[in-house]
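Record copied across here:
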Amino acid sequence: MTVVTTDRAAFRQALPHGGRLIGMDVGTKTIGLALCDAAWTIASPAYTVTRGKFGKDKIGLAAFIDQQQVKGVVIGLPLNLDGSFSPRAQASRAFAHNIADLGLPILLWDERWSTQAVTRTLLEADASRARRDELVDKLAASYILQGAIDGLVAGLE
């Protein structure tokens, strides 16, 4: 049975030998993707998928995951500020359960501030609106994945 959890210890236990992870910022129109190295050192933005029919999106994600030799998935969980589940968090959790049959452990990671942090950074860099729209989802996925790997590695020390 595939692990879908918010518990980083349970996720870490499902990956006793580490391995490359994929981070996802799941939105209604796009999915931002990021990857990290097998040693969980640094996350890098990969690309943004424009969402279409779920079945087709899932096939594309599965192919990318296989090609990149990914061992685990980190999906951003946009909780409300008080920690309760927002409608978007419920949608992200449903997405995780819908891709669980890919056979990889899935960590749902609190990402309340990821998009805002990335947008602020892009504004400070004086990126145009078009450039921000092009980058924000994959950068948010990278931000989410970096937070998760930092948390996972800290749990090993």
In short: The first strand starts at residue 4 and ends at 5. The chain is about 45% helix and 25% strand.
